[in-house]
Design goal:
about 30% strand, 3-stranded mixed beta sheet, about 25% helix, Hypothetical Protein Aq_1857, Chain: A, 6-stranded mixed beta sheet, alpha+beta, 3 helices, about 140 residues, globular
């Protein structure tokens, strides 16, 4: 197996489904903001928890300025005027994660509406609840 230290891959580090984008946009419109931040926090039954939350413009500006001063390029996924910022310190933990949104479907055993996070199986494993993960 050959390990590559430099890459020209231009795919985003995080995959967001259309259903997840639709829900993100609805939440943003309802809250009158246009940004979310996706990060990993320590904890949970598997080591790290996924965290997806609204991001106010002032918080975004602080993160952007702080990382610009450190010469860190931020990963930002965009759909129309909406942005999903990948928290820079969490990005290596979240790489390859797929964000989806499912709606309740009683006939198929889904009893709640929620975001679903699926790690890339080559890079991380997830617990049964799907809220926490462990990098490999």
């Amino acid at each position: 197996m050959i390990k590559r230290f430099f890459s020209t891959i231009t795919k985003p580090s995080i995959i967001v489904t259309d259903k997840a984008w639709d829900k993100i946009i609805k939440i943003c419109d309802k809250q009158n903001v246009n940004k979310f931040i996706f990060s990993a926090t320590s904890g949970g039954c598997n080591g790290y928890n996924y965290k997806l939350e609204l991001l106010e413009d002032t918080e975004y500006d602080n993160i952007y300025t702080k990382n610009l001063n450190k010469k860190i390029k931020l990963s930002i996924l965009k759909r129309e005027k909406y942005e999903l910022l990948i928290e820079p310190l969490s990005e290596f933990l979240l790489f390859g994660t797929r964000i989806d949104y499912i709606s309740e479907d009683f006939l198929n055993g889904v009893y709640e509406n929620k975001f679903v996070f699926t790690p890339n199986e080559e890079l991380a494993s997830s617990c049964g609840c799907g809220i926490s993960f462990t990098p490999k």
